[in-house]
Amino acid sequence: MKNYLTGERVCLRAMEPEDPAVLYEIENDPAMWVVSSFTVPYSRYTLKEYISLSQNDVFADKQLRLMITDRADQSVVGTIDITDFVPLHGRGAVGVAVLAREQGQGYASEALRLLCEYALGFLRFRQLYAHVPVSNEASMRLFTQAGFVRCGLLKDWICRDNRFEDAVLMQRLADTPSPSSEQIS
Fold first, then answer.
1. What is the C-alpha to C-alpha distance for residues 107 and 74, in angstroms, rounded to an integer?
2. How sure is the predictor about 25, in pLDDT bands with cuts at 50, 70 and 90?
């Protein structure tokens, strides 16, 4: 059977009790708040509770958070999520966060490819979608290279620095062919 959560450089895994430190770093980065819709910092206690209460089952939790790890040394480099999962419609929103010091090394691309294969293939989701700020060219490229297509524009969707910014609604349907590794590079 195919291992949906392991790639060449990246492994996706469930959250573990030792993960609050990296989650604390990601969740408390104000730069991430703009796209995550969270506006307050999380305590270490809250993150520990979140991990302990999670069933790591997208059907039970209606969300799935996976840790992105480097296969070579098992270090956590980021997270990838499916949120707002609606089983009736077979859809969920995707979010990717890679630690600033780890960005630009291809972790997000491979993690997103693996997540799409897992959700659309193994879990049989009908579709995945993402809201991407129009100014975030790197995220636009990331999702486009993973087979997502622009399907709408959300006016004044995100407030950044007291200015409103549009967001592109990007979507990938289950029957969209998976881009090959050569297309992603």
1. 13
2. confident
Q: Which of 22, 4, 46 lies closest to 98, judged by CA?
A: 22
The torsion angles phi and psi of 173, rounded to 5 degrees, stand at -90, 155
3-state secondary structure the chain: CCCCCECCCEEEEECCCCCHHHHHHHHCCHHHHHHHCCCCCCCHHHHHHHHHHCCCCHHHHCCEEEEEEECCCCCEEEEEEEEEEECCCCEEEEEEEECHHHCCCCHHHHHHHHHHHHHHHHCCCCEEEEEEECCCHHHHHHHHHCCCEEEEEEEEEEEECCEEEEEEEEEEECCCCCCCHHHHC
Is residue 23 scored above 90 in pLDDT?
A: no
| pLDDT tops 60 at residue 182 | no
Tell me the pTM: 0.87
Handedness of CA 24, 30, 36, 37 (dihedral sign): positive
pLDDT tier, 36 (very low <50, low <70, confident <90, very high otherwise): low
Amino acid identity at 110: E
